[in-house]
Amino acid sequence: MRIFIALVVGLAGGFLLGLVLSQVIAIVGLLLVSQPVGIKFLPIYLALAGVYASPRAPGRHHGDHAQGPA
After folding, report:
1. What is the 3-state secondary structure (H, E, C) of the chain?
2. Helices 42-53 & 2-33, crossing angle to 10 degrees?
3. Backbone phi, then psi, for 49, in 5-degree steps?
4. Would you say 57 and 28 are in contact if contact means Cβ atoms under 8 Å apart?
5. Domain map (residue ranges) of the chain
6. pLDDT-based confidence at 53, cuts 50/70/90?
7. Stronger pLDDT, 13 or 69, i.e. the higher one
């Protein structure tokens, strides 16, 4: 269940980050070259990256549940 929640949070967080980053890139492009620029499907790419990275985040223990060196 924890992994499923981590995947959903990674998916939503990556998508929202992609939307914001896409808008920032478009605004900067508009200011610099007088036309909006961007990366097509950036929110989808970042959502997939978030799903991939969320279970592998630092601080998550895999394998045995040891609390550190003995």
Report:
1. CHHHHHHHHHHHHHHHHHHHHHHHHHHHHHHHHCCCCCCCCHHHHHHHHHHHHHHHCCCCCCCCCCCCCC
2. 150
3. -65, -35
4. no
5. 2-56
6. confident
7. 13
- What letter represents residue 60's amino acid? R
Are 18 and 58 a contacting pair, CB within 8 Å? no
Size (the chain), residues: 70
Categorize the per-residue pLDDT at 66 as very low, low, confident or very high, splitting at 50, 70 and 90: low
pLDDT digit string, tens, across residues 3-20: 888 889 999 999 999 999
For residue 40, the one-letter residue type is K
Distance CA(6)–CA(4), nearest Å, equals: 5
